[in-house]
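Incident log, structure service

09:12 report received: a user says their structure output differs between two submissions of the same chain.
09:20 pulled the input from the user's history:
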Amino acid sequence: MATFLYKLGRLAFRRRRYVALVWVALLALAGVGAATASTATSSSFSIPGTEAQRAFDLLEQRFPGASADGATARVVFKAPDGGKMTDAANKAEVQKITGELKSGSDQVASVTDPYATRAVSQDGTTAYLSVSYKVDTARLTDATRAALEETGGDARDRGMTVEVGGDALQAEPAIGGITEVIGVALAAVVLLITFGSLVAAGLPLLTALIGVGVAISAITALANPLDLGSNSSALAMMIGLAVGIDYALFIVSRYRAELAEGREREEAAGRAVGTAGSAVVFAGLTVVIALAGLAVVNIPVLTKMGFAAAGTVVLAVLIALTLVPAALGFAGKRIHGRKARAAMESQAVDAAAGEQPATSEKPNMGTRWARFVLRRPVAVLVTAVLGLGVLALPATSLELGLPDDGSQAPSTTQRKAYDLLSDGFGPGFNGPLIVLVDGKAENNAKAAANTVTEQVKQLPGVAAVTPATLNKAGDTATITVIPKDRPSSVGTEELVHSIRDAGGTIKADDGADVLVTGATAMNVDFAQKVNDALIPYLALVVGLAFLLLMVVFRSVLVPLKAALGFLLSVVATLGAVVAVFQWGWLGGLFGVEQTGPVMALMPILMVGVVFGLAMDYEVFLVTRMREAYVHGERPGEAIVTGFRHSARVVTAAAAIMIAVFAGFIGAGESMIKMIGFALAFAVLVDAFVVRMAIVPAALALLGKKAWWLPRWLDRALPNVDVEGEALNKHGADAPNGSGGGPDGGSDPDRELVRV
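09:34 re-ran on a clean worker, output below:
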């Protein structure tokens, strides 16, 4: 592989104008596709294989139109102090608002009358009306949203409280906001400090932005036909920026190192892609495996998010292998800062005069840290593991759920509407359960539904049960159950299971199926499905990546150590997420206005992304150690060499990822905020505790055993040559380009820039 990538890097360097033109053309083509694509609808949400989904599908079949796809809203009214919503003045105000909503937009399908539908609380102080729209949330116009937000202005002036809830006001996650820009700006600062050159710092940013631009434009263009939600774009942008900058960073860093050894520019570019590029390929493969592996959960929205992000990573790898060496050709001498260029020119003059350059290499921070760990490996290992264990403790209290208006910030109208309904109609009113009774035959559902109604009324945790509603055929009935507790409570979850258990006796007696659905039941089933899939998902992803790393490092223990370190990072990150988003610790610092259950989607999504990113650092750091070891250094020396050459770059890469991910913490969408925090914290822990402390300490204790591989397995595994041994054998390591490389030839640009 190293030889192939070496040739690819030299080709991209020589034909840089064509390579740049191809990528610019792809960006333009994807941009045109995104600009001309029809407006994407809201992504459908389904959970195949769950009872709630089966009931929902049956409901659509037996009660056509009952589960409309259009957006909905609830306008909630609370009478002024001392008054009731049944008072003539208040009633007239509500009727006026109802008329305004009906005529305010041609997207409105229907508006209910709270007095006709008995949507007035028992004490008469609270009422609500429901608005249904002809289109989904994504297609609502700004004028329609504005009309809904401005509803009840006059009523408020008269002392009535009017708040609006429902998905009609749900905003699509914004991409490219000010916080994301700040994250990219911080990444630019890190690059500038790392390289000391504006050109070298700007190159990874430019190439990463081109890759993300192609990816996001393609996702936008395909959003409608592939039913991709807006969260797919947000995750793809988050991952694409981070890995795109990091992969380019490693190529550029290795290129500068090759130049410092006296190689010609084209030769240096080829070797940079052949060595660091090999690490990029395998690091990218681990990320792609982790993201594509989300398909095993069998939740379509999660699968699509994973594949969209995986495609973005593939683009980042391709850009690192082609566009980055092409951009290096355009950069010329400016890839180094002024001081570095002056020093290199001075060395060139000394070499021309026959003076020997100084070969002593001053120990850097990476060297000093590695030697410190080698002196105290047990203390470092125990301290790091215990520290991560303490961080992981809150994860034992992890509660999963899906967001609703109750998880909105207290200052929002959606949250205020939610609280008004809870106060007026009970905490469970915001999360009703729909019990579907399938009688299997005409006129067979009524008796079964009556039996179910009586049994459900006796269950603990039930506040109210509405009379059964039969379909036209008489073979299916629906019953609405209002829990006593709020939708995300343990009591409501237990009630869902209790109704299902009671339904089992009905089926045994009457042959009728009893299914529970509704948003709350969907949330319960979703969390359960994610929990059930977590272990198989981990086994698949960790197993495949273990095999991949075993091929890369020619070792059994190094991949095992990498996987165990990843698990420590995950549990520590989950503990931090619980502490901040569920318990509210330091919530104000991260903009968490409302605590609550951790979103069920987050842990498994975080596991997939963090695993891929954790393996990035493992590959980049340990590959250089492996390279030194196979070149004859002792295990301890190889660790120091790996840190001397890679610690600074890995630190910069981690800082860049943290900056990019932290930029998404300021997002308004709670899921994006939580994922941004989790990924930023996970990178912080994995890069600076696991890879920088636990990895060298474990390798120091293992010694030569770390690189042990059974002979039969060594013969069976393919040799991918990440260390670039084939380049040395073919003479590609000759300074100043004298060796010519595996494919011969020389640098056609020597007369332009000679470093």
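09:41 both user submissions now match this output. Likely a transient worker issue. Closing.
09:42 reviewer note: Confidence is low (pLDDT under 50) at residues 732-755. The longest strand covers residues 126-133.
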